[in-house]
């Protein structure tokens, strides 16, 4: 009795990524292959013809720079973090200013005789 492979499909397939060197080597190999052998090159590397089309377009448009471009969200700009910190500090300082102005306003409304009596008693 032979064991069977697990029939369950992984929950999340992992997207493959290719280096610029690999892309250039495969493109060279694909373009050097005779017309009837190109499919064999694709099968050997587990690729589709759309990979070759995209890689060629990238190569022709921007040489190696186009081949190294990564997908997904660009990295966060450090200036955004600094801006957020400055905004938070600004809000905190505005709150302190509001409280200080309130204290000054209250102190300005207290009659001077009450202040003198408090200082004499103390």
Number of helices: 5
Secondary-structure content class: mainly alpha
**Cα Rg:** 35 Å
- What's the β-strand tally? 0
- Taken in chain order, the helices and strands follow as HHHHH
Question: Shape from CA axes?
Answer: elongated
Q: How much beta, percentage-wise?
A: under 5%
Distance between the termini: 100 Å
Report the sheet with the most strands, covering strand number, pairing sense and barrel closure.
none
> Can you tell me the residue ranges where pLDDT is under 50 for at least 5 consecutive residues?
none
Write down the overall mean pLDDT.
Answer: 82
Residue share in helix = 55-70%
Word description of this protein:
- This protein is mostly helical and 122 residues long.
- Helix content is 67%, strand content 0%.
- It has helices at residues 20-32, 38-45, 49-67, 78-109, 112-121.
- Helix 1 (20-32) packs antiparallel against helix 2 (38-45) and helix 1 (20-32) crosses helix 3 (49-67).
- The mean pLDDT is 82.
Task: Briefly summarize what is shown.
With 122 residues, the chain is mainly α. It contains 5 helices and no strands. The protein starts with 19 loop residues before the first helix and ends with a helix.
């Amino acid at each position: 009795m032979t064991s069977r492979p697990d029939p369950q499909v992984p929950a999340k397939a992992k997207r493959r990524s290719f280096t610029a060197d690999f892309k250039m080597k495969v493109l060279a190999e694909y373009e050097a292959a005779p017309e009837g052998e190109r499919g064999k090159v694709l099968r050997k590397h587990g690729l589709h013809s759309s990979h070759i089309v995209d890689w060629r377009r990238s190569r022709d448009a921007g040489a190696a720079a186009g081949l190294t471009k990564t997908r997904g969200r660009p990295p966060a700009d450090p200036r955004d973090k600094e801006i957020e910190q400055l905004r938070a500090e600004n809000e905190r300082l505005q709150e302190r200013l509001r409280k200080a102005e309130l204290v000054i306003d209250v102190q300005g409304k207290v009659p001077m005789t009450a202040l003198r009596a408090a200082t004499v008693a103390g």
